[in-house]
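User: Predict the structure for this protein chain, please.
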Amino acid sequence: MKYRVQPTAQVDESAEIGEGSSVWELAQIREGARLGQACVIGRGAYVGTGVRIGDNVKIQNYALVYEPAELGDGVFIGPAVVLTNDHNPRSVAPDGTQKRGGDWEAVGVRVEEGASLGARSVCVAPVRIGRWAMVAAGAVVTKDVPDFALVVGVPARRIGWVGHSGVRLVEREDAPGTWECPRTGAAYEEKDGVLTAR
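Assistant: Here is the predicted structure, written as structure tokens:
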């Protein structure tokens, strides 16, 4: 076996676990889920049926990743994060009968490469979290988040930009629309509300 699963974890035999990955205590990986290489699934985390996870992804303790979520390479899912999958959740149908698996249509959250979701944040599907974006702890995301955006609050709103290192970018005074990472010096350009690396 080229990956590690703790004895108290539940991993369905149809799930695919990439080389070098670790699944910790009480985690549950459902049917048909696919984890890439070198992933870490924390204690008590849940990965739903058919969820697709890239390489080098960290899903921290007690996070809930419901199907049909898709996580790109290098994504960070903080403790107790929830990725929902039902835009109009109900336990019962209008006639009062209990809803079952086929009585609703699952919608997913897509988290792109390098993005990070802070502790206890919630993404209300369907939404896309852009590449290298940062969702603050406790935020509730109800609409798509642009690449490199820093979003906070309920509902989440953009308050700035972050670079590849996760540090908030600073706009250069001598070059409006040009942003710089104070940690790495990397430069980014903003045009029409879109940030790109230079």
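The radius of gyration is 18 Å.
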